[in-house]
Design brief:
The protein is of the alpha+beta class. It folds into two domains: about 80 residues, Arc Repressor Mutant, subunit A (Orthogonal Bundle), CATH 1.10.10; about 170 residues, 2-Layer Sandwich (Endonuclease, Chain A), CATH 3.30.870.10. Helix content is about 45%, strand content about 20%. The chain has ten helices and ten strands. It has an eight-stranded mixed sheet, sandwiched between helices. Strands 1-2 form a two-stranded antiparallel ribbon.
């Protein structure tokens, strides 16, 4: 007998998911389930009995239907399955991140993942630049400075963008000061570009790029040497919202670079 515990219910839903899914709100009879699922009558009888015992199904004049509890639990089951599938898509990349790293599985849902290769190690940065190059408003957090990315930030000053908020780690700012002074001065002089410095070093690069009608987000995963490991690009509303919230958090903790002594 199925235990009325969370683990017991989850185990039952996993086991009897085809029957639970086949039973709809209008009701369905056992013989229809046998024909639809192509299983034995005894299998349907056992499945119906187990699901009814825990309140996921209810008997009606038209057979059996899912209860509200069954509807909600099946929806949560599907959501968990979707998140698991998304995480499997990024499993190899997740191995490069700390177990304590804050990351929502929605980032991987319906995402495009561009990975670095031996022949094109900077392809993730190229994909990042392709995304931000056509945006009118960009918000980004970056722990490192890459020449290709820096060149694009400078080019943005000559384009029809509205605004770019760029949050940099202390090491990244140090790189700008010591090796890219001219580019830094160009960015500081551009009123549409806001440079910010944050004390903590982000584990990943984050970006949300928007035009007049849409928004796309992305996440740069770095390798152990600080190079680009992969770029995860997504335009799902939930993922973009999550990325925007993370960038906003970093902006709230940052200091405008114009208020920092650059030496």
């Amino acid at each position: 007998m199925t235990q009325h515990t969370p683990l017991g219910i989850i185990s039952l839903v996993t086991k009897r998911e085809p029957i639970l899914r086949a039973v709809h709100a209008d009701g369905i009879r056992k013989r229809e389930l046998v024909e639809q699922l192509r299983v034995s009558r005894s299998t349907v009888d056992r499945g119906i009995r187990e699901l009814e015992n825990v309140g996921l199904l209810a008997r009606t004049s038209d057979g059996y239907r899912r209860t509200l509890f069954g509807e909600l639990l099946l929806s949560e089951y599907d959501r968990f399955a979707t998140q698991t599938q998304s995480l499997l898509a990024g499993q190899e990349l997740l191995a490069d991140l700390s177990p304590a790293h804050e990351l929502d599985p929605v980032v991987f849902q319906d995402a495009t993942i561009i990975t670095a290769s031996k022949h094109n190690p900077h392809e993730p940065i190229s994909a990042f630049c392709s995304l931000t190059g056509t945006a009118r408003w960009t918000q980004t957090v970056f722990p490192s400075v890459f020449p290709q990315l820096l060149d694009q930030w400078v080019e943005l000053c000559d384009q029809q963008m509205i605004r770019a908020d760029i949050v940099l780690s202390e090491p990244a700012v140090g790189t700008l000061v010591s090796s890219h002074t001219d580019s830094l001065e160009t960015l500081l002089a551009e009123p549409r570009v806001r440079l910010h410095q944050i004390e903590t070093e982000p584990a990943c690069g984050l970006v949300v790029a928007e035009d007049d009608s849409s928004a796309t987000g992305g996440l740069i995963v770095l390798d152990e040497r600080g190079g680009p490991r992969a770029f995860i690009e997504t335009d799902t509303d939930e993922a973009v919202s999550w990325l925007r919230d993370r960038i906003t958090d970093q902006l709230m903790q940052s200091t405008p670079l114009s208020e920092q002594p650059l030496e």
